[in-house]
Design a protein that fits this description.
8 strands, eight-stranded mixed beta sheet, single chain, disordered C terminus, alpha/beta
Length: 183
Amino acid sequence: MCGAELHGLPEGVQRVAKALQDAKHPHAPVMLDGAARTAQEAADSLGVQLGQIAKSVIFRRKEDGVAVLVVTSGDRRVDEKKVAALVGKVGRADADFVKAHTGFSIGGVSPVAHLNPTVTLLDQDLWRFDEIWAAAGHPHGVFRLRPQDLPDLTQAHPADVVHDCSHDTAQPSPVRPLSKESS
């Protein structure tokens, strides 16, 4: 996307587009006709499986108030105990906290281009898919990527962060614990 194409987009989408462009990511954000505030809405709009939506869930680390971003597969639920074991105790983040720390509103939180650094964890279950979609800074904005693009884009690594799912058959990526200083 060139500067002229970015001009008409919402500010959050412009930030995401620039971050993707700077990272030489091959896919620019696209704007959907309908909102994709939930993983199910995004999957329906894109005609993909729910698990192919990389949803961004923000927590607040209790010890220092840092935002913790968990990028998880749309068909999974984040296990707070697993997240806490990796980064320290966490609590829910309200809409004001999310907006202040990421620059995005709930329903459009991208895994990239946050206003402030976050501790980031990537759900290893995303690696079940060849292609996934993530929010691009606005409830109508998304971008296409491969799970293996996430570590480079976020400087994070795959981890076991979701409730156990006994019906899975795909092999997850190796898990590497993250220290509190990782982001």
